[in-house]
Amino acid sequence: MKVTNMTFKEGSQFKIRIKPKDDCASFAINIGHDSDNVALHLNPRFDSGGDVNTIVFNSLSGGSWGDEAKEGNFPFVRGEECKFYINFNMEQFYITLPDGSMLNFPNRLGDVKYKFFDVSGDARIVGIKIK
């Protein structure tokens, strides 16, 4: 699913409910300006790209990927719905994972408003809400 004309700005909270497929290898949530300029790439990997039960974070600027960051806390279960909460400011994204733990990732694009949202991979969106 791709949304290209939303308003997600500093101070808002983005709530995403996703259900990974029973055989999910990985899925990705992307937030940014467009598919070549992604401020937050959040990629839980059950078993993909040589990573097992790892969350990979990155950003994409002008079509070029930055340096990956990896997180070993992996509160996901194939086939079970999960919720994320995402907030951000000019410096950081603040991600609340399904188990309630929080992670930060730098806002490498440094903007305070994004309009692009995309979910790809072996999962389906159950619901999204921005407030």
What does the largest sheet look like? Answer: 7 strands, antiparallel
The 3D shape can be described as: globular
Instruction: Give unreliable regions as ranges.
Output: none
Order of helices and strands: EEEEEEEEEEEEEE
Give the averaged pLDDT, no decimals. Answer: 94
Helix content: under 10%
Q: Radius of gyration from the CA trace?
A: 13 Å
**Strand-residue proportion:** over 45%
The class by helix and strand makeup works out as mainly beta
The CA-CA distance between the termini, in Å, is 20 Å
Total beta strands: 14
Domain Galectin: 1-131
GO molecular function, one term: carbohydrate binding
Keywords: Lectin
Protein name: Galectin
Structure description:
0% of the residues lie in helices and 61% in strands. Strands 1, 4, 5, 6, 7, 8 and 13 form a seven-stranded antiparallel beta sheet that branches. A five-stranded antiparallel beta sheet has the order 11-10-9-3-14, with no helix packed on it. It starts with a strand and ends with a strand. The chain contains no helices and 14 strands. It has 131 residues and is mainly beta. The chain has strands spanning 2-3, 8-9, 14-20, 27-34, 37-48, 51-61, 64-65, 69-71, 82-88, 92-96, 102-106, 113-114, 116-121, 123-130.
